[in-house]
Amino acid sequence: MGEQSDAEPSKRDRYLERRRVLKAVGAVAGSSLLAGCGGNQTAGTETPTGTEPTAATEPPTETATETQQTEEPEQSLEERYPGLRILSPEPENAEAAERETYTTLITPLEEFYIRNHYPTPDIQESEWTVSLTGMFDEDVELSMEELKREFPTETVFHVMQCSGNGRAYFDPQVGGNQWTFGAVGNAEWTGTPVSAILERYGADTSDGMWVSFMGGEAPEGEDIFTRSIPMGKVMDDCILAYEMNGAPIAGDHGFPVRLVVPGWYGNNNVKWVNRMHVMDMMVFGDEWETEDQRLYTHWQQYSYRIIPVQDEAAEQYQTIDTYDTYEQMQNPDQIRNAYIFDQLVKSMIGFPGEDSTVTRRADGTVEVIGVAWAGDNAVETVEVSDDGGETWNEAEFFRPDLGPFSWRLFRYVWSPEPGDYTLVSRATDAMDRTQPATVSSPDQNLRGIQNDQFPWNQGGYSNTAYMSHAVDVTVE
Ligand SMILES: Nc1nc2c(c(=O)[nH]1)N[C@H]1C(S)=C(S)[C@@H](COP(=O)(O)O)O[C@H]1N2
Ligand SMILES: [Mo]
C-alpha cells in the first residue's frame, strides 16, 4: 500500500499474514472481543516474568501481582510492534501503519500507537510508589500492591488518541511528529478509581479543585510530564490503570500504572504516574516553574493549547471553569487558547484502505467499515460519502456498544460502479456537533470550528477534518 509499508515490507507482510490466520481461528480481536483481549499480547512485549496474559473474562484481581518489568533489550521497537510505523525509535513514537487497524473494536498491542516525550523507563513494580500530596496532614505513599488490593477495581473502554493525530495533514505543516491517521487506539483499561483514593484520605473534592498527575520518567532536568485534571472529571471516572486489554500495561504504555481520563485526549493520560497533587488550581506560575525551567507547567500551560498563527504564545490561566475542549474553542473571549481536554467527535474509514483497489461482492456491493467516537459524550450518527463530501449516506453501527468512551464500529453497504472514488466519513455526536470538511489556512486566524473548517493551529492539534482523512479507492 502506501509509503509506510514499503519501508518494512517483509516484516509487516508476515505480521499481517499472521494476523489474518489468527483472525480466521478466532484468536485476535477482529473476530471476538473477549478472545481478542488475551490473544493480543504475544508479539508486543516478550511477556514479563511468568505471568501469562489473563483473559478479560477472568476477574482482574487474578492478574499481575508478581509482574515485573524485565530487561528486554535485543528487540527493536519495530520487532516488538510489527503493526506500527516508527516515527522515532527514541523516544519511542509510532503509529498504526495500516487503515485495517480501524476495522476492529479493540486495538491489539502490536497496532496500538505509542507517544513518548522521553524514553520509556525501565521500572520495577515492587519499587514503584504513587504519592498523594497537597492538602493533607501527611503525605501519602501507596505501593502498587496497596493500590491494587486496598481499593475497588474498575474497567473502562476508552479511545486513546494523541492530540497530534492528523497533524501531518496541516498545510502549511507544523513542527513535531508527523502523525497521519494512526495515533489512536481503543482498549479496555482496568485499575483503581482515583475518587476512592481521594475519599479515603479526605481530600477536598469540591468543584474548582484540581488534581495534577505527574509522570515519573523525565530525565534529570527535563520538564516533568504533568497534567492537571479538574476535580469533577477526576471524581466521575478517572482511574489509575494497571491493565490494558486484560494484561499488565506494557512498558511503553505506562507500566506499572497510568492515568486514564475516559474520553479525553491522550496527553491527559499520564503514564508512569508517581505523584498526584491536590490543589485549587492547575500547575501554574512561579511555584511550579523556576526562572529558566517550566518544570511542572510546560505540558499543561505551554503545550497542548490551540494557538492560532497571530498569537505569540498561549495565555495561561490559574484555573478555568469550562473544560469541554469544543466549548473552549468556540468561546475564545473566555479562554483565549483552548486547553486540549476531551476529544472532539471524529471518525475514520478502516476499509477500504488508502489508495486501494477493491473488487465488488457478488451482489455488486462493497462494505465500507470504520470507527467513530466522540470523547466523553456519545457518537450519534455516521455518514459516508463516495464523492468527497458532495452527497452523504447514513452508515449503521454494528458490534457491541462498549460505552460512551469507546469507539463504535460502523458499516455502509456501498453499491459503486467500477471507477475511482474519494471515500470519506463524517460523525456527529449527541451534542449535534459534527466533523468539519477541511483545515483552515493560518491566515484565517480561527480559534474554533467555523464554516466547516477546523482551525489551523501552531501545535497541529486535534485535526478532525473529514477531507484530511479521505481514502482514494479504485473499484474494479
Ligand atoms: N509520563 C508521560 N505520560 C504521557 C506521555 C509522556 O510522554 N510521558 N505522553 C502523553 C501523550 S502526548 C499521549 S498521546 C499518550 C500516549 O499514550 P500511549 O503511548 O499509551 O498510546 O500518553 C500521554 N502520557
Ligand atoms: Mo499526544
Folded structure, characterized:
The protein is an alpha+beta fold and 476 residues long. The chain has two domains: 1-336, Sulfite Oxidase, Chain A, domain 2 (Alpha-Beta Complex), CATH 3.90.420; 346-475, Immunoglobulin-like, CATH 2.60.40.650. It is built from nine helices and 24 strands. Strands 5-4-13-8-9 form a five-stranded mixed beta sheet. Strand 4 and strand 5 form a beta hairpin. The structure holds ligand MTE and molybdenum atom. The site of molybdenum atom has 6 residues, from loops. Molybdenum atom binds at residues 115, 162-164, 266-267.
Question: What does this entry show, briefly?
Answer:
By secondary structure, the chain is α+β, with helices and mostly antiparallel strands.
Task: Fill in the keyword field for this structure.
alpha+beta; 476 residues; 2 domains; binds molybdenum atom; oxidoreductase activity; Immunoglobulin-like; globular; 13% helix; Sulfite Oxidase, Chain A, domain 2
